[in-house]
Amino acid sequence: MAVKKKRAYQSPVRQRQADETRQRIASAARRLLEEKGYAGMTMEAVAKEAGVALPTVYAAFGSKSRILTEILDEARFGDSYLEAVREALATTDPCEKLKYAARIARRIYESEGSVLDLLRGAGVVVPELARLERERECDRYEAQAKLVDYLAHSKRLRADLNRKRAQDILWMLTSRDVYRMLTSEKGWSPEEFEIWLKRTLVETLASGAKSAKKE
Length: 215
Description:
There is one protein chain. The chain is an all-alpha fold. 74% of the residues lie in helices and 0% in strands. The chain is built from eleven helices and no strands. The protein has helices spanning 12-40, 43-50, 54-60, 64-76, 79-90, 94-121, 127-143, 145-153, 163-173, 176-185, 190-205. The termini are far apart.
């Protein structure tokens, strides 16, 4: 007689408590980063500031660089980002979806700016953090394949572009480096960046598309 395997059960209460603990740790780490810099944001100090045991901090994050990544992600993927994503998923027009890619990029980079300034001011130079950021870029690249596929399935991808080339272009144009160069180095406002990027994405990737109107 076959023995049924017990299905893993996750208590919603336990999950909520774990999420709240993780949030408390990240908030404590940010306070320490602001007040004492990266050197003062030790795992021991984070545990004390958050009011949890040191093993709890390690269990939740594993390392300081992963806590920094969490702080950045909280800034990047807030309510304005989630609202833009919901609106992008709701629209069926391929060109409108491209324009939402511009809006989402702006909201991410605009929201993370204060945290990145904080990290630079704290003298954070961590090889592992750089590696985690590269992983985020790989994730962003892979996620954008869905938008390129939608363009292709809708017969709106430019005929002179294959999906790989279109994905490369989309990833590059929506990158943090492009946003930084135009806003930080050339003085564009985030709104000007978004308007330009909407028009550029549509004109570069979509077939038979008119320029995006200024919004």
